[in-house]
């Protein structure tokens, strides 16, 4: 288990031996909130399936959007990042959607990558629980988890600015953001993501 981060906390992505993480996996997961209403004959009503989408937005040092990675564009233009595919339900344990990033291949023009989740069907976060964002070191044997940010904020918003990785000297750092937003896809979240730089 990686370091548990609170909203606003940062972590250097430097290994104990001083080397930098090169290949990371951003995993995002969620579950449907437990149903509170009972259906016919007092049976527990089945939880709604929650379709959230994980996306990455690449910014330059001036805050200009350079690229996006999401379910309609599964790879970044510089070849550094790959979205592994759309999960329509959030069912199952662990990561529901993942974005693989080879930090050594990120364009030098990119200074920060912001990770967001949004509901294309406009389901709100009062229907979501156990949402998290985590960083896994895919350059190390066994792919250990480096950091995890557990989201505890529910509400009527339909998107979240979850986390970001930023250039820090010769390496990178990870920061838990957890800002509320609204939007159906990554294209609706460019402005609120820029506000988190």
Automatic annotation (TrEMBL):
CDD domains: TerD_like (cd06974). It comes from the Bacteria. Residues 1-183 form the TerD domain. Pfam families: TerD. InterPro entries: Stress/Tellurium_Resist, TerD. This is Stress protein.
């Amino acid at each position: 288990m990686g370091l548990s981060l609170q909203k606003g906390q940062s972590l250097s992505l430097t290994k104990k031996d001083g080397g930098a993480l090169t290949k990371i996996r951003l995993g995002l997961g969620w579950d449907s909130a437990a149903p509170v209403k009972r259906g016919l004959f007092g049976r527990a009503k089945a939880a709604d399936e929650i379709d959230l989408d994980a996306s990455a937005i690449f910014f330059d040092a001036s805050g200009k959007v350079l690229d996006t990675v999401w379910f309609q564009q599964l790879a970044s233009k510089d070849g550094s990042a790959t979205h592994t595919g759309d999960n329509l339900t959030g069912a199952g344990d662990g990561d529901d959607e993942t974005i693989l990033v080879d930090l050594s291949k990120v364009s030098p023009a990119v200074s920060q990558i912001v990770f967001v989740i949004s509901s294309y069907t406009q389901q709100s976060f009062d229907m979501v629980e156990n949402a998290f964002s985590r960083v896994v070191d895919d350059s190390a044997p066994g792919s250990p988890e480096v950091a995890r940010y557990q989201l505890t904020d529910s509400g009527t918003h339909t998107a979240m600015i979850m986390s970001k990785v930023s250039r820090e000297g010769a390496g990178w750092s990870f920061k838990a953001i957890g800002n509320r937003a609204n939007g159906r896809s990554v294209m609706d979240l460019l402005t609120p993501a820029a506000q988190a730089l």
